[in-house]
Automatic annotation (TrEMBL):
GO CC list: cytosol
Keyword Isomerase on entry: yes
Lineage, highest ranks first: Bacteria, Thermotogati, Synergistota, Synergistia, Synergistales
Cofactor list: pyridoxal 5'-phosphate
Name listed for the protein in its UniProt record: Putative amino acid racemase
Keyword annotations of the record: Isomerase, Pyridoxal phosphate
Residues of the Alanine racemase N-terminal domain: 9-228
Taxonomic superkingdom: Bacteria
Pfam families recorded: Ala_racemase_N
CDD domains tied to this protein: PLPDE_III_AR_like_1
A GO molecular-function annotation: alanine racemase activity
């Protein structure tokens, strides 16, 4: 097929990001796993993370993990989204460690393990305030989980974990991660054995490692964004010691014409039901690129060329203002864009975007 739009991946930079994150964490006694879901479980990206030294791989989708296993990647696989009751057989078959928060799930995993003659490790998720997954950190809920774990024959609890900076945008801190440690210690007392893993979050938790405020006892992080993009969207920062030029989105020009900057006629709503707003800047040179909402999240892309401004997008068309570009675009030219996490996720998942590996 034609080859555009495409997402170019600099594997060498992703490998280097992984290695820098792994070494930073190692200095604080923390193991770092690589999270592949942002790139839809791409096999080459996953391999680069392992070559960079990641201790394990995590993904939120069972399908991605199954593909990585089938491709022969040798590592521990962690399922990052709480497992569904309808996928238990695949979970215990493909996944080494699941994150869980419900006693029912422990029972379902354990029954499935018994039926298939397998064992399974779990990490109990604790909600320290972000209001996504996890038990509420009160004794009744800790005890309830301990009871379900003690009753299970094949499911073993290896640790506790938390997720911050996702739904509620809550930043990790020594206070909320300290809370995770306390819950883990209480669970250890109820279970009567020590927990090996204290999993303290994702990319946003790296800031605590960098400024030496990570509570001692937290010994694992699950890192996606920092390795894939060198950024920390929750902490609103670029991570200066990592590469940001890991991914480039390429889209092709299919029209270049000078047009008014305000539509002519009565404005209804756009193709997505939003009423668009326009500033009158007179006649402007505009290009249409053959990429749209089926391929990417247009709000999350930034043109690399000076003088290019994204005006908007429909399902299949991206409109850019190119009046101030220093050379004239023609049909068949391409423009390149940086992507943020949401745009990467959409592009990597879209069947219309070709993912192309580069190595330098
Ligand atoms: C996505 C995810 C991660 C990785 O998050 P990043 O911010 O990309 O590092 C870690 N843990 C869980 C449970 C996740 O869902």
């Amino acid at each position: 097929m034609g080859g555009n739009p495409k997402l170019k991946v600099r594997l060498d930079k992703i490998r280097e990001n992984a290695s820098r994150v792994v070494n930073l964490c190692k200095g604080a006694g923390i193991e770092a796993g690589g999270v592949t879901k942002g790139m839809c479980g791409n096999v080459s990206v996953a391999r680069a993370m392992l070559e960079g030294g990641c201790a394990f791989l995590g993904d939120s989708r069972l399908k991605n993990i199954a593909i990585l296993k089938r491709e022969g990647l040798q590592t521990t696989f962690m399922l990052l989204r709480l497992p569904m009751a309808s996928e238990m057989t695949d979970v215990v078959s493909y996944v080494d460690v699941s994150l869980i928060s419900m006693p029912e799930t422990i029972k379902l995993l354990d029954d499935t393990c018994m039926a298939l003659g397998l064992n399974h490790d779990v990490i109990v998720m604790v909600d320290v305030g972000d209001l996504r997954e996890g038990i509420w950190p009160v004794s009744a809920e800790i005890e309830e989980m301990a009871r379900a774990l003690k009753a299970s024959r094949k499911v073993r609890c290896i640790g506790v974990g938390t997720n911050v900076g996702c739904f509620g945008g809550v930043l990790p801190s020594s206070a909320n991660l300290g809370h995770l440690l306390e819950v883990g210690h209480e669970l250890e007392r109820s279970l009567g054995y020590e927990l090996r893993v204290y999993s303290g979050g994702g990319t946003s938790s790296l800031a605590l490692v960098e400024d030496n405020t990570m509570p001692s006892g937290i010994n694992q992080l699950r890192i996606g964004e920092a390795i894939l993009l060198g950024s920390d969207i929750t902490g609103k920062r670029l991570i200066s010691h990592l590469h940001q030029d890991t991914l480039r989105l390429v889209a092709e020009v299919i029209e270049v014409r000078r047009k008014p900057s305000v539509p002519i006629g009565t404005i209804g709503a756009d193709a997505f039901g939003n009423v668009p707003q326009f500033n009158d800047r007179g006649m402007r040179l505009r290009a249409i690129l053959a990429i749209g909402r089926q391929d990417v999240r247009p709000e999350g892309i930034t043109p690399l060329d000076r003088g290019v401004y994204v005006l908007g997008a429909s399902s299949d068309h991206l409109i850019v203002d190119v009046e101030e570009m220093d050379h004239k675009l023609t049909v068949g030219d391409t423009l390149e864009f940086e992507v943020n996490y949401g745009a990467m996720l959409a592009a990597a998942t879209s069947p219309y975007v070709e993912v192309v590996m580069e190595e330098r």
